Amino acid sequence: MLGAGLDFSGGMRGAAFGPRALRANDVYLPSVTVGLPHAHTRVDALEELVICDYGDVAVDFESTHRSIEPVRGLVREVAETGAIPFIVGGDHALMYPDAAALADVYGKGKVGIIHFDAHYDAARFGLGHHLTHGTPVRKLIEQGHVSGNNFVQVGLRGYMPDDEDLAWMRDQGFRYHFMAEVEKKGWAHVMERAISEAAEGTDYLFVSLDIDVIDPAYAPGTGTPEPNGLTPRELFPLLRRLGAETNLVGVELVELNPLVDPTYVTPLVANRCAREILTGIAMRKKGITEPHYLHPDAIDHGQT
Predict the structure, then answer these.
(1) CB-CB neighbours of 50 under 10 Å
(2) Which of 92, 111, 192, 221 stands 20 to 30 A from 20 (CA)?
(3) Peptide bond into 35 cis (omega under 30)
(4) What is the pLDDT along the chain (304 residues), one digit of tens a residue?
(5) Residue 28 placed within a domain
(6) Which is nearest to 77 in space by CA: 107, 94, 54, 93?
(7) Residue 304 lies in a domain
(8) E strand or H helix at 22
(9) Phi and psi dihedrals of 85, rounded to 5?
(10) Structural domain boundaries, residue 90
(11) CATH of residue 33
(12) Residue 63 CB neighbours (<10 A)
């Protein structure tokens, strides 16, 4: 796990403090490191996995572009060891160096991405700049780091993309799931489709999680909040399942902005998102890979 406080293109400054907020969030359990299994799976990620805090990337707080290579280099350094880099941001411009670093290690076009976000982040420009928190997807696709048919988006809503960008996404082969699909077909349907698509056509998967995919009622601490988002109850099992049922080689959690949340609720939810993913990875390590596994003690009072 490494922090990357990139914070130059967000809707509101403050995401640079996201890594610090996530690290400090277990305010009521500060000294517990093991012995707390996930309630639904009975798997303790902190006991099963070797987790290292690799510190923070030396980003330039005045320039996104000058921060790209330091981020890409450190993520690549971690991935080359065979470890799973888990990057905590920072704004979503990080997707470009994070995913490019994994392509450096595993090969261009070999890593699929499942992208949780209220926004499509495939704009051509952002306020005249080629690389902002709203443009990394297009940059990755156009440079060939990721194939469009291995790009899955979940949680889109609001007033973007426009017709031209949506047509571009279709032309690239994107699979995308607007919240309208959840309204029409239900979350269970969307979750199963997303799992299937994420594991299709590639041997490796990168999870890009923008905290604003969650409804701001549950996670207000982000620079670009968008109402009508996912609930934690919807998102958590999908994150856990991705860790258990697919071959994750990298994770990023971005756009956490504690400065716009006077409570600790957003870092709390972000911390739980991270733990759900880690629990899934630990389940896979233990060989628990069946679809949507839940321990009998959690659902049947211990009865089989």
Answers:
(1) 6
(2) 111
(3) no
(4) 999 998 876 667 899 999 999 988 765 555 555 668 999 999 999 899 999 999 999 988 778 878 899 999 999 999 999 999 999 999 999 999 999 999 999 999 999 999 999 999 887 755 656 687 778 999 999 999 999 999 999 999 999 899 999 999 999 999 999 999 999 999 999 999 999 999 888 999 999 999 999 999 999 999 999 999 999 999 999 999 999 999 999 999 999 999 999 888 999 999 999 999 999 999 999 999 999 999 999 998 766 5
(5) yes
(6) 54
(7) no
(8) helix 18-23
(9) -70, 130
(10) 2-299
(11) 3.40.800.10
(12) 11
Q: Are the CB atoms for 258 and 27 separated by under 8 Å? A: no
Chain centroid to CA 142: how far?
A: 21
Please give the full DSSP string across 132-184, using - where no structure is assigned. Answer: STTSHHHHHHHTTSS-GGGEEEEEE-TT-S-HHHHHHHHHHT-EEEEHHHHHH
The tally of CA atoms less than 13 A away on the side-chain side of residue 149 is 3
Could you tell me the two tokens for 244? 């258990």
- Tokens (6 digits) for 249: 């080689």
Find out whether 4 and 256 touch, Cβ atoms under 8 Å: no
Tokens of 303: 């009865």
Tell me the Ramachandran region of residue 127: left when phi exceeds 0, alpha when psi lies from -120 to 50, beta otherwise.
Answer: left
- β 86-89/175-178 pair status: unpaired
Q: Angle at CA 238, nearest 5°, toward 156 and 113?
A: 60
Provide the 8-state DSSP code for 89.
Answer: E
Q: Strands of the chain (E only): list them.
A: 2-4, 86-89, 111-116, 151-156, 175-178, 204-210, 248-254
Rounded to an integer, what distance in angstroms lies between the CA atom of residue 3 and that of residue 297?
36
135 Cα distance to chain centroid? 16
CA 1/CA 75 separation, integer angstroms: 10
